[in-house]
Amino acid sequence: MALKQQKIDVTDSVTGKIKNGEMELYLENTCIGKIMLSGNLQYDLDHHFEADQQKIYQHVTITDGPDAKYTDCDDGGWC
Fold first, then answer.
1. CA 72 to chain centre
2. What pTM was estimated for this model as a whole?
3. 75 belongs to a structural domain
4. Is residue 74 part of a domain?
5. Which domain holds residue 15?
6. What InterPro entries is this protein classified in (predicted)?
7. Which of 44, 50, 76, 77 is the most exposed place for a label (fewest CB within 10 A)?
8. What single-letter DSSP state applies at residue 15?
9. Distance CA 49, CA 7 (A)
10. Per-residue pLDDT for the chain (79 aa), expressed as one digit of tens each?
């Protein structure tokens, strides 16, 4: 089992609230960043997120390979 970085498209789950000339961005009620609405659109996102070609992605760490268990089951053992 290995850990692997993956980028997930969360664009459809992000909501925004306009406040003081900016749009605050939320994912499941957690603020993940903001977009400045003056001039060119500029994203200011939490370090686990990135914007690319009008989509917002979340960086996550996933396991790669078989799901390893803490203990092995054997005859008379427990799981």
1. 32
2. 0.70
3. no
4. no
5. 2-64
6. Uncharacterised_YusG
7. 76
8. E
9. 9
10. 678 889 999 999 999 999 988 999 999 999 999 999 887 888 999 999 999 998 999 999 988 766 655 555 665 555 5
